[in-house]
Sequence to fold (286 residues):
Amino acid sequence: MVAGILYIVTFVSSIPALFLISPVLNDPHYITGPGADSTVIFGCFLDLVNAVSAVGTAVALFPVVKRQNEGIALGFVTARMFEAAVIVIGVVSLLAVVTLRQNSGADPALVPVGQALVAVRGWTFILGPSLVPGVSGLLLGYLMYRSGLVPRIIPLLGLIGGPLLLSSTLSTMFGINQGISVWSDSQPCRSSFGSCRWASGWRSRASGPRPSPQGRCAQPEGYAGFGRARTCIRSPCCPNKLMNSTGFPSALANQCGVRVSNSAASPARSSKSLSPSTRRSRPLRM
Fold:
């Protein structure tokens, strides 16, 4: 729920911000003109909301996607944090232009300074909201495709759109194409993922066995083993797993949340008091 809402927030905040800050981006003499400071400041605020929401989406998704591949999940979180940091640099550069315009008294000598700060913001837009989402889209698309927690078409958008966005951004960096449109920020994929996540939640199908509500074996299912090796025949968290008489595998027990009882061995049921043939022939109660 939280991740879906934050993805929608990034979509809602980033698109209007681009239009609100357009006066300072398109007017080379903004620093000496009348200016629309309030509009630009509000657009910068929306960019800050976008940056914070980007980090929030990564933090909210990390506990889920790390089950597929923790290394790739950490890479996704790092990419989103880097994107947010670059966005903040661009916001600071535009706020500096507004401050210079308000305090300079329309000094023409500050026009090159304002243009330089606007150029810094232009490059932060290319490196932050344009280049990094191609990487994070690939990472998240791979993790979501493996998990099966959302409809497969949504991670496929990230897996296909990520390389396209990377190639488009690199072409812009080297002057091959003219620029990046507002829709090249992989926002349709993000909004689709956010809407699906917010409206329907994860699919009920889990990617692995789930712990039982009690966190231990249910004795009515029957048990096998002797002394300290007593375990459940069938675990409520792993109904398709049969336990053997030598004990519950520790890795599977940790994954399922099964607690093996450590009752003291009694002489009557001790493994040493029974012959191997008796232990093999003893039926298990199901």
